[in-house]
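From the pipeline queue, job 12 of 40. The input is one protein chain; the requested action is below.

Action: predict structure.
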Amino acid sequence: MSIADNIETIRRDLPASVKLMAVSKYVSVDLMREAYAVGIRDFGESKIQEAQTKQQKLADLPDICWHLIGHLQGNKVRKALQIFDWIHSVDSLKLVQQIDRVAAELATSPNICLQVKILPDPNKFGWTIPELLADLPEIDTCQHLKVRGLMAIPPLGLNIAQTQQFFERVRDLSQQISQQNRSNLQISELSMGMSGDYLPAVAAGATIIRLGSIIFGDRYKL
């Protein structure tokens, strides 16, 4: 099946409220153009240098929205804020505060998601639920960024029911935060669900799904 066919098949299962992000890391700009041609405007990258190169090659497509979905190191915050519209992988209070400081210097206001670790997972970054709830007052004082939602990736090895429960706990956490009515936290987005688990994520309330292989198949190449 073509990229266009893959995207059409995926969209049949999606409510209009769910944003489809194409995870384009390791994907050539030619394949990204194929996705763009059938309406994809949100692309997710995990490495700053790769994203920069692609942005230069796709400069004729100015309405692309660029999302950083990979781990962000502190020494790369400035460059990330210069090239990405969204950062989904903000995983610590220290990183939030650094983004806030740099955003003030750059006179920008980035959209960010807070990465949470609902279940123990040594392979994932992010806050545990108690850690995030404890840090919310400090996060709320940051004036130069837009905290838009939560991002989560389930651990490997969960069955379908466990995966569904995982995503539901992320949704419940977002609702718990929203009920606190903090002035600078607009937790309306749930960035969760990838190629192998986006349907239970959508069922649990995902608003942004991050799909790579199910769109581009095994043709990952630069």
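Job complete. The chain has one domain: 3-216.
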